[in-house]
Amino acid sequence: MLVNKSKAAELAGVSRRTFYNHIPKKRISVIVEDGVEKIDLSELERVYGKEKILKNLKKIEDANEEKEKSVQPAHLDTTKSVQYEMLVLEEKLKSADALIEQLKSERESLIEDKRRVQEQLDKALEIGTPIGKLLTDQRTSNEGRAVAERKAIEESIKKEAAEKRLKVMSQRLRELREENEHLKGRGFFKKMFG
Question: Is residue 93 a contact partner of residue 183, using CB atoms and an 8 Å limit?
């Protein structure tokens, strides 16, 4: 949705002069439509944050609603607010889908890493006895055993950390899927007004 510079400054919660200074400093994209310079709401969200823009939009609409109460019935809702709410919900849904895909990819990577480590461990165990004697310290002192135990503990810790990360990512993926299903199952008015 495109708005003129004055409206954009109002949505950003800054003066027009400050907003005009922010355009080059914060690299805000300006679109010329019918000879009028306009700003896309997504640019405002990028620079000032979605929450701030939505909050200021509601303030502006509330003020306009108070002015228009005498002219319009109270049950009419501004379409711009509904359109903006729809855009925000669509963006949240897209970002949730993107995060789900990222978590799936990371989960698959962790599973593949775990599989490779297990294969290496299995191979090491197959040939471990003869080669292990050659590579390990055969002295009877506790020093050689301590080094071997420390290495075994380090490997165990690494494996546990990878498994924990996998569990956390799996849980987050489940939560995002549930949230996504919840959002998909809701009707238009429930999405808009709770």
Answer: yes
5 CB-contact burial (10 Å; exposed 0-12 / middle 13-18 / buried 19+) = middle
Query: Pick from 97, 110, 80, 71: which is nearest to 181 by CA?
Result: 97
Buried b (16+ CB within 10 A) or exposed e, 90-121: eeeeeeeeeebeebeeebeebeeeeeeeeeee
DSSP string of 33-100? ETTEEEEEHHHHHHHH-HHHHHHHHHHHHHHHHHHHTTTS-TT---HHHHHHHHHHHHHHHHHHHHHH
Helix and strand numbers (H, E) in the chain are 7, 3
Q: Where are the domains of the chain?
A: 2-68, 79-193
At 17, is the pLDDT very low, low, confident or very high (cuts 50, 70, 90)?
A: very high
Which one-letter DSSP state was computed for residue 140? S
The rounded distance, in Å, linking the Cα atoms of 178 and 80 is 29
Confidence of residue 18 (pLDDT cuts 50, 70, 90): very high
Q: Is 2 helix (H, G, I), strand (E, B) or coil?
A: strand
